[in-house]
Amino acid sequence: MKNRRAKSRGQEIAKLVAVVTVLLAFPTALLLHSRWNMKQMTQPVHSADQNVEISDYGASPAGNNQVVVLENTAPAELPAEELEMPVMETPVYDSYDLVGIGRGKDTDTKEYWTRQLNAGAMRQHLLNSFTYDSRNAEFCKEYGITGETEYVDLVAVGDNLYHLMITNSGLQEDGTYNYDGIYANIKDYISEADIRIINQEVVLTSDRSQWTNFPVFGAPIECGEAVVNAGFNVITHATNHSWDKGRNIALEDIEFWKSQDDVLLTGMYDSPEDYDNIVIGEYKGVKVAYLNYTQNLNGFTLPADSKYMVKLIDIELIKADIAKAREQADIVIVFPHWGEEYQTTPSWYQKSLAQQIADAGADLIIGTHPHVIQPLEILTTADGKEVPCFYSLGNFVSNMPWNETYVEALAKVRIKKQGNKVSIESVEAVPLVNYRGVDMDYTVYLLEDYTTEISRTQRKWEITPTYVENFFDGVFTTKYYEMKQD
Q1: 141 and 203 assigned to the same domain
Q2: What distances in angstroms separate CA 47 from CA 5, 37, 60, 95, 121, one per listed residue?
Q3: C-alpha atoms less than 13 angstroms from C-alpha of 460 in its C-beta half-sphere
Q4: Is the pLDDT of residue 475 over 50?
Q5: Residue 396 and residue 160: Cα distance in Å, rounded?
Q6: Alpha carbon separation from 306 to 92, 248, 269, 338, 483 (Å, rounded)
Q7: Domain limits for position 463
Q8: Mean pLDDT of 243-268
């Protein structure tokens, strides 16, 4: 019993000694830290006019290598022998400038930059700036240097096809036309993406006499205004209806799209020079090229003086464009307007062409034209690269009567940038529903927002959420895919 009491008292004494030791040590440590901070404040800062020398930790002003404390090292004025810790030398800077410090012919070497990057390893934003500079791409690739990861999100929808009933539905009480309501239920969803693509099926004009229906289409300029208001910023326009109204209206249509701020047009062109250029957009440092072609022109032929106005599918042209795009962009997307109408299975022609496009160097293929959805397939090139192919997204807006034309897809793609490496990380097919109300109002819903109550007001009662889901799942056996990364 005595032994237990003695032991307990000894433990209490030991705890008391420990507490007193800590309390006495704290003021001492605080004093030392204060003295060290004062010394740091009086040290000179590197001037841009000083010569620069190289140390194992980066560049330092010549003749001014001062002892500075890094994290986890003791204050510089305490003797290193007493602390049994090495004193580390590094330059004194307000900030690092990995691109600017001492860069010249005598210092622009891989060894120099390796030391610079090591010195600034904890300054991630500067490392990002270095890795995003295309001049440093070869060096970063050789040494596996990467910055932070950035993501660019892309969404794409199918054919924006205005039949005459849709055109008439936009008439307002004051005699003007407005179609914002068609896109209202999808606007917030697509606004989350950086790249928002729509396939403009028919040409636009302000001439109301040219607003016509099947088989030769023309639609109001106000349709384009609604598309822009909805937030779409990439317009693919090479379709079988691009030449339905001839040269003058095609030029009017092109002029409208080109007059829109922050909107890119591909597939239709107003000059030979424009035709030869690669349409490229840049998002968070990622350059994306858009190539668009159609397999036919609704029975029309481009005149000799207008051959450049619409790009037609020609595998040699596509290969040449991809090669040019590869030199200018990080990601190359090809949009073929192809296939057989109302067929949910891609044809042999589509599959063959898709493989050739992938082998030529495209990163992504997004198809349109069949007016119904066709599957997502992951193609593999001879060198093992994976290339996603959405064979058809179906319609986006239309007045077609068949049930399957109400079911649509949105392609959702995530592009990943890590340092100077850019790749597609994932692809997804998202189900949409083309709504056509009994009062001739039109809009588009995400399937997740399309309720049974809404379906009961559809012009066709058969288009229930269950019907859309079953039809979509029957076509898209692969709805989501994460790409294999090197």
Answers
A1: no
A2: 68, 21, 10, 11, 22
A3: 20
A4: yes
A5: 5
A6: 65, 11, 9, 22, 41
A7: 150-482
A8: 98
Strand-pairing partners, residue 154, are 195, 413
Same domain, 193 and 329: yes
Q: Is residue 29 part of a domain?
A: no
Residue-wise over 336-359: b if at least 16 C-beta within 10 A, else e? Answer: bbbbbeeebebeeebeebbbebbb
Domain identity same for 357 and 444: yes
362 and 290 share a domain?
A: yes
| From 70-84, 258-272, 390-404, 427-441, the region with the lowest mean pLDDT | 70-84
199 and 77 share one domain: no
Q: 38 CB contacts (<8 Å, ≥6 apart)?
A: none
Domain-embedded: residue 296:
yes
161 and 137 co-located in one domain: no
For residues 168 and 205, state if they share a domain. yes
Contacts of 308 by beta carbon, 8 Å cutoff, 6+ apart = 269, 271, 272, 274, 275
Q: Is the pLDDT of residue 161 over 60?
A: yes
In this predicted model, what pLDDT tens digit does every residue of 291-306 receive, in sequence order? 999 999 999 999 999 9
pLDDT at 108 over 80: no
| Alpha carbon distance 154, 412 (integer Å) | 6
Dihedral, 397, 401, 406, 410 alpha carbons, nearest 10:
-40
The total number of structural domains that make up the chain: 2
Q: Write the pLDDT tens digit of every residue in 340-362.
A: 999 999 999 999 999 999 999 99
In a domain, 43, yes or no: no
Clarify whether residues 177 and 282 are in a common domain.
yes
Backbone angles phi, psi at 412, to 5 degrees: -120, 120
